[in-house]
Amino acid sequence: MRVAMIGTGYVGLVSGACFADFGHVVTCVDKDAGKIDRLNRGEIPIFEPGLDALVAQNVEAGRLAFTTEAKDAIAEADAVFIAVGTPSRRGDGHADLSYVYAAAKEIAELMDGFTVVVTKSTVPVGTGDEVEAIIRETNPDADFAVVSNPEFLREGAAIKDFKIPDRVVVGTDSERAREVMRELYRPLFLNETPILFTSRRTSELIKYAANAFLAVKITFINEMADLCEAVGANVQEVSRGIGLDGRIGRKFLNAGPGYGGSCFPKDTLALTKTANDAGCPVRIVDTVVEVNAARKRAMADKVIKAMGGDVNGKTIGVLGLAFKPNTDDMRDAPSLDIIPALTEAGAKVIAYDPESMHEAEKLLSGLDYAESAYEAIDGADAMVIITEWDQFRALDLDRVKTSLKSDIVVDLRNIYSPEDMAKRGFTYISVGRP
Prior knowledge:
Blueprint: E1 2-6, H1 10-21, E2 25-29, H2 33-40, H3 51-60, E3 64-67, H4 70-75, E4 79-82, H5 98-110, E5 115-119, H6 127-138, E6 144-148, H7 158-163, E7 168-171, H8 175-184, H9 186-189, E8 195-198, H10 200-231, H11 235-243, H12 264-277, H13 283-306, E9 315-319, H14 335-344, E10 348-352, H15 357-363, E11 368-369, H16 373-377, E12 382-385, H17 390-393, H18 397-403, E13 408-411, H19 418-423, E14 427-429
Parallel strand pairs: 1-2, 1-4, 2-3, 4-5, 5-6, 7-8, 9-10, 9-12, 10-11, 12-13, 13-14
Helix pairs in contact: 1-3, 5-6, 10-11, 10-12, 10-13, 12-13, 13-14
């Protein structure tokens, strides 16, 4: 089948490359000429493990192309995916749908023959109805169906999540559209992937509900971590003890500095706004948003307390800036709250991250960047771990001990053993562990 992917951001680029690898002919369209030039030179604008090779293979095979010209791509497509950004709108927290609606209008002007218009972007309930209305108004004679097909990609594992998903959700009442979507995802039938067909509005809500539920789990275990510290319990053992219950599950029960990234912060906020507008507030999610924001700020206080309550004039080596490992994504990363609070308290911060420092430089000021983890902590008064990159799990702790001016290690991801760190002579502070 022929696919047009409108938008070459994280979702559009990964989805386009994976559909091409399924054997479809995919054209990715973006108005950013610089980005398209880079892609046509084989340069991937985001860090995602395996994506560079996947793109190169499918470009070479003639199944994947990149262009700024939407006309031919849309006119020839069986399915046109809208995969543009939906950031939080300034002022009220609602999802900004201007890019989605602009894409819908452009598609309406260029489509030729029956076309399935698929909303891949994360959008509030009812957005598909508006997309359909825009297309109908722009091109009254158009033969089309609007489908909701939310993405469930984890940054750092996106290719696996696309090719071996837990499920595929398709929201449409059109049987012709269902047939197109079945054909697009036909390779997944071999793996017996559940493909859930729902109404469009139900599909749109599934995405928000899934992200909100995961955000609730993260925030719950973070609050349990605080309780563990207060009463002398171990949050990792609590997590394992409840996670082995099949009704709860073990995933997303790792205590830390709070969730961040491109999805959870904006999606939980958008869900609360949608619910309030519908007269049906989701008070649990409202609280999660507030607690998570406060937690990020509290992590700086945790570091300051570990350093005797005063960091003025002291040097802190920070390891990890991205919101999670295996990505360069800095959106709503805990480091964006923690590091400014430390520098405002008078600390000198030297940071290192394997992939995200080029993005961090756009968002953070008042700190220095190192070329390695060991350079970041050399002569520092404390080492603070914010992101759990694998390379930080395997640091030479003897070298760390001699590199640091003092013995303070604040591990906000619990990647080391308190017993082992104590034996090595560190003053070791983690999250939710005695």
